[in-house]
Amino acid sequence: MSRRKNPFPNPRQHKGAAVVDIYDGPTRRTVTLGPWGSEQAQLEYERLLVRLRAGRSVAPVHGAPAPVNAPADLTVAEALVKYVSHVEGYYRNPDGTPTGTAEDIKITLRYLQRFFGALPLAEFDIRCFKTVRQAMIGDGRVRNQVNRRAKMVRGFIRWCVEDGLPVAVGVLEKLSAVRPLAPGRDGAAEGEARMPADPTAVAKVLPLLRPPVAAIIRTLWLTGARPSEILKMKPCEIDRTGPIWELKPTRHKSSWRGKSRAVYIGPDAQTVLAPWLDKTPDPDDYVFSPARAHAEHNTERSAARKTKRWPSHMRRNATKRKGAARKRAPGAVYSHLTLSCAVRRACLKAGVAPFTPYTLRHLRAVELREQFGPDHVRAVLGHSALNMSDHYSRTADRALAMHAAERAG
Fold this sequence. Notes:
CATH class of the largest domain: Mainly Alpha
Number of strands: 6
């Protein structure tokens, strides 16, 4: 039985040159890449792999490296440079900082750069698209994430078409015809469903958190708001004239679509927020500020000090203080990562299963559905469609079914 041919052969040394054996059916052809160990040989080998992955033929050579793509052709890598410039300018917050979407797109584009960077853009087709998608599966990405990133690849090709870059005729329509990965059928792992936070675990964790973080967690639980809406909340965005306060974030998840968003703050949440609103000096400042919380903590420690401040102690402390030169000075606003890390550390300390701040939104949805029904879930969480509210609160079905069976079974 003959040995299986390697579709992506490794280079070997032959008379001081780097060569590689290419198989076209039963026919073997040796391609010379360049001097062994040279940068030229490595570059030609990478270009050769690109064409093999894309299913392209390699032009025969006679003692010299084959020009895999003409210099005049725009490569995928060159198109990616143009697209990344567009992404960095388009996906930005009002303050000029890049959004999470921009960074997520760049992660996806690295697959294109890795496998087909040297390929002419005009030769990118369905086979290349599926190769990239299969590489994502091979990296252990779950099915929903692979499908989402595949849309980003299509978005790159769509932008190339819109910007007049040389793509193959009809390639965008062909990529759109590729079906998304189906559950249990295409070899991609399934992600774990996001479950609502355990209210018992949340109650055990709250006493272990710093006061501002605990207030944020309580507010998220009571309002069902997104973490970004509470972390970046400002007093000027809250209407406190009525019995129910109304938070209208200046910037939120769907603001780029022209949609409005309101977070309704009831009596219990008002009790949690009132002290922090009183501590906010400027209506345009963030209600929860790490820098302000750090300064208040230091003031409280100084006031609770029992030993006398001897001059020698103060001089030594002055040499140890970093002030603005410290590596990680407190910021003006809490980030998602800061909040999540604080909650995770508290969960481990309390000995409960870790939960994320966003699962408090799911917990609120479940509680609202058990008490009032799905329409109230949609109204409180700010969803446009009822099916999204059902997705957030469907874990309440078991409790509702058991209640119905007890009453009517």
